[in-house]
Amino acid sequence: MFPTVSHFLNYLFGINVPLPFNTFGVFVALAFVAGYWAFTKELKRKEALGILHPTKKLITIGEPVTALELASNAFFGFIIGYKLIYALLNYKLFVSDAQTVLLSLKGNLLGGIALAALFTYWDYREKEKAKLPKPKTVEVTVHPYELMSNLIVWAAVWGFLGAKIFDNLEHWDSFIKDPIGGLLSFSGLTFYGGLICGGAAVLIIANRNGIKPLHMLDVGGPGMMLAYSVGRIGCHLSGDGDWGIPNLNPKPFTWLPDWLWAYTYPNNVAMEGNPMKDCIDKYCMELAHPVYPTPIYEVFLAFIIFLILWKIRKRIKLPGMMFGIYLMFNGLERFFIELIRVNSKYTVAGIPFTQAELISTLLFISGCLLVAYSIKNKEKLANY
């Protein structure tokens, strides 16, 4: 396994480059890039078809810089400098434990002051260049795809918060023991929490900019499936604990690689299992028994679903139907993966189930209802 990018580079090229990037985080970033690409393509396509329309905005140009703008730039510059310079001066610590460096109160005061001054000066100079003797108001056209930068930021912020909240609810006993650690830790993220909270933020902002919810949902279906596939690569390569139940069964096919059938996740970033012999790295744990590598299964399944959605998207004309199909595929895929996946279980009325099983069932039912609604109201939705 490759808990950090440095481990991955060492495996590929035999070089040891100490980098403060964990593999899972890199693939989360790549997942957002993949989603950004798919969302943008769909927004442009739907605008070309006349389904979505650009909006007009009034903006004032040529205004002088305000005290609030200078103060906010100084604040962000200070935070960046305070942490960045400290991280560079304590690089070994930063590489070995980036989370502690970033989330602690430790930092470099001079670095913070220097970056605060630089950010403030830069903002002042840029505003001075654009300042007019008399500020004026102009009308600009904003195309739907131009909203993506703003949408992706809000999706990331609220998606992360939602993923943390749902994960802590799923592992409530661990959260109670260490609530601060549970909230601040970069590990432990639940996909459905991110989907629900991040998706809600995107819908609200899109609606404020003239994109109706059903159209935005349809745009997001394929992109979210692609992003999920990419993100799961990071789960598998880092060994973040999203693996399956023990699998001691013999391979059904001799040509099937061991890592695709049953895997022990050596050097996993979750640091679960037994100590590895002769390992002197930070990540020296390996599962006692091989398990189903469910993350890699989800990589393949999610990508296949993305290809299907991407293929049929031009044939679907009714608003809401594409997202309904996405929900059905998503719910089915995750429900069946849960049958061989390690997860916390709840019991209600004697019926055991996982959080993901419950949510995936609700998503599948919601998808069916949304498809039925689209078909039943096709005349009403024709001019939606």
Automatic annotation (TrEMBL):
GO terms for molecular function: phosphatidylglycerol-prolipoprotein diacylglyceryl transferase activity. Keywords: Cell membrane, Membrane, Transferase, Transmembrane, Transmembrane helix. The keyword Zinc does not apply. InterPro entries: Lgt. GO terms for cellular component: plasma membrane. GO terms for biological process: lipoprotein biosynthetic process. The chain crosses the membrane at residues 20-39, 66-89, 101-124, 186-206, 295-312, 318-337, 358-375. Belongs to the Lgt family. PANTHER family: PHOSPHATIDYLGLYCEROL--PROLIPOPROTEIN DIACYLGLYCERYL TRANSFERASE (PTHR30589:SF0), PROLIPOPROTEIN DIACYLGLYCERYL TRANSFERASE (PTHR30589). This is Diacylglyceryl transferase. It comes from Pedobacter polaris.
